[in-house]
């Protein structure tokens, strides 16, 4: 016989709907960067690269101390000496210790690299993102600005800068910031043009997300691959632009040196004293390899699509 | 599309005019005169006056500008100061050829090698060829092209004697400089292609295409490459302009009478008419290529619409 | 849908092709245009061809516009003056057979050789000299070399200022073969001037018929030198062919000459090693490895690089400071170790080997007036600092070429070592540097001057005008010495004036501090004989060269 079950009102209690609980995400809420860092740590190659970069930075800061020579002491009895125990990286035309000069130069080149990357990221990415997202007239005007900046010969601007600003690292940074970010802006713009009509952006719009949020939270994270790669190309080109500018007198004055300047000088004597080119070149390549692997790691770590 | 192109051509002309105007007035601020200062000071007052008169340098800058623009519309780019009496158009035309040939070859090499390396590297992610591509890319970008050019010249030209060491004599002379210039292009294209491909290969439509049983090659070509090529196309624009208009270092190393060295020299010697001539040529070319690239976007990816505003869509 | 996409793709592709196509057609036509040059340049040095190079473009072939060494080299070999420098750099009769000087040393009468001809068959006469020299003394001349005639020739300056007619100028063709030149003052080195390109003849009829095109291409010129110009491209060089109508053609042994433009030192060396060049100039880093090579030689030019002090500057207006800086530089190490390219340490302003009294050189007569003495330097420095009240900050202005920068770096180190001071180096482009100097906006600068002709006056004249570029040097003593030397009929007295003037400028007033005389270290292919390089004027002489 079927028992009749009484379901009385009393059996029910009204559940308290906790608004916070309803939307609770069990996984700890990480910002994109915390999340990225966690995943970067799992990437061995990236960690090794980071470690090497840290070593290079330490050498750039403390390297000159390990030599009893300074980067400017001349010694005309020991010019163009090959690498030896006294001069680990040999000496240059003036008998100056290359070890001290290379680490001194690394310091300056890293500074340039950081400055170039910042210019790229801040001006370039913002410019490109805004231009693409707003589209229409805004895009047209912003793209014409880029064309004008690229069209006016850089060397003219640089020489004029040289007349009004004192030679030095900040003048170089100013010179770099005039057009150093243009490629980045164009790349980001192209990527966002591609992305902005995709579903996730439309969804965000439907939800009433503002332009700023859309750029920062949705579009740029999805463009990170291109951004990282392009930053990698900007950095060495900035380092060599610095060398060129230093040569025409806008950058560093002797006896200061940067890796770019050392490579330029080493290139002049390549056939007779190749070590003067090889050591600074190896440092630059090492920096770039590490940046590159780290950049790839960063891309994997930051790209929301790679999230598992 | 047609309307869009017309609009862009109007923009092109306006932008060009702004560039020309700005450059003209900035250029006049450059220190020094187009003449060798030590020699010019040795001219008598009458000689100086006649000299300046001949080149129209006595007028106020604004008048010089007006005259210059007028002449340009009539197709007259003036005569060079540095190469006394030679017409600028002739000087530039004589120098474009070598630069363009080398640049074009470098782009062809860089584009084909770069695309192939990038595609394979992404397709076989974390394989030997992937690492090889990374190495090529890093070396290509961190070893400056003048070092590559010098090494190629020394080994291929001098030690092995396979190709000419320098000079612009025959097509053979153009091989080494093209190769030297192509490393950077290869590096950039391979790197961008690989990154984008890696992204695209994980997208649902690729998985779908594979699941449908489409053959791998078709998936790669029809879906993956086309969806990954936007950054390459973007970056290719400026590369094309830069390479076709010459590279100072490589031209100097191979003693090639190209336009890269002419441009730098003209600025260093205040050769006003040559500076303006090259600026016009260079910017017009740049703007045109950017326009073509913009049009290519919507051809490659129909989702991209340039002509209309973005907000409402 | 599909079709329209395809169409758009084709359209875009064709646009890309069109852009690249533009460049390519340009190539095709330009290669075709330089076709003749190609076949020429493939001939190696052993086939009766000498190939040399210059680091700069050939700016012009118009002799009244030419002022650079490379243009001079070509002009000197495709044309000729009354006299030509011989293998020992002394003038010897060229288009002129001989000359006579009047007793007052003011009238020179040159007699031309018989049967001189231009390369187009026209006879070359004394009138061609008159036309050319008047052109050089007119407002048309833009090379800044008019002074080299107007300073000497009667009414030349007045003609230039439009105050005298052509007939009044002291140059006349007495007949087709006789040229008479009247000078304002005795000029012992006048014949030595006639070897310079400004003094070469020009055919009036031909030049006028070419108008503005004269000298723009090889076809727009006629020639009277040992060679004719076969091709001329400012950027890639020129090719020269033996001139069969040259009066001394029998003694011109090499039938083809290429002059190329190579801007990179390493490129030139590689080209030399691969047999594409007959001679290569070495950079200092190459010298140690090459010194023992049989092909090695070196030469020094009449060109002095010096430190110019600005005498109106707060700091270096102090003479003790200037003397201290001058004494603090070891020029021997600079020349032998740092430059190591055949450059010689400066011991005075006038370069080694320049004309003195005929038996001894100027330098030998006025020996070491510039020396290195660290102790004296320190002494003067302390004296100077005391007078100024505090140790001053000094900036050294230089040009941005690599040799000058090397020199600047070296002397910066010397000042640090010997005076204990940090001198700042300000390197600028050539134009910017000259502008700063002209604007009187510098303390001291590295500057150089190459002799126009073989006499000390080519240097000494520069400091008489007191311009900022020359350090605002205004000295009664110095100016009167130079003025006297210009008028002097007695060669010995004139020489004495010049010797004293150099001492005044360099040692007593210390307005300039000479650093070194530029030299060249080079390799020459063993089969090339007698390829002469002159220390001044037109640098390379092909006429005397031969191939083994």
Features of the shown structure:
heterotrimer; A: 308 residues; mainly alpha; B: 313 residues; 73% helix
Descriptive notes:
The complex is a heterotrimer of chains A (308), B (313) and C (548). By secondary structure, chain A is mostly helical. Chain A is built from twelve helices and no strands. In chain A, helix 11 packs antiparallel against helix 12 (275-302). In chain B, helix 1 packs antiparallel against helix 14, helix 5 (88-123) packs antiparallel against helix 6 (128-142) and helix 8 runs antiparallel to helix 11 (230-244). Chain B contains 14 helices and no strands. Chain B is an all-alpha fold. Chain B has helices spanning 2-28, 37-40, 45-54, 61-73, 88-123, 128-142, 145-159, 175-201, 204-211, 216-228, 230-244, 248-253, 259-268, 272-300. Chain B is 73% helix and 0% strand. With 548 residues, chain C is of the alpha+beta class. Chain C folds into two domains: 56-261, Periplasmic binding protein-like II (D-Maltodextrin-Binding Protein, domain 2), CATH 3.40.190; 299-520, Roll (Dipeptide-binding Protein, domain 3), CATH 3.10.105.10. Chain C is built from 19 helices and 21 strands. Chain C has helices at residues 2-33, 35-41, 69-78, 126-136, 147-150, 156-160, 190-193, 204-210, 265-273, 287-290, 319-327, 331-339, 362-365, 374-388, 402-419, 430-438, 457-460, 476-487, 491-508; strands spanning 49-54, 83-85, 91-93, 96-101, 107-112, 171-175, 178-182, 227-233, 237-242, 256-261, 279-282, 296-309, 344-345, 394-399, 423-428, 444-450, 512-524, 528-529, 532-533, 540-541, 546-547. In chain C, the strands form six sheets. In chain C, strands 11, 12, 13, 14, 15, 16 and 17 form a seven-stranded mixed sheet that branches. A four-stranded mixed sheet of chain C has the order 1-10-9-8, sandwiched between helices. Chain C has a four-stranded antiparallel sheet with strand order 4-5-7-6, with helices on one face. The model of chain C is unreliable at 1-46 (pLDDT under 50). Chain C: Residues 36-48 have a biased composition (Polar residues). Chain C: Belongs to the bacterial solute-binding protein 5 family.
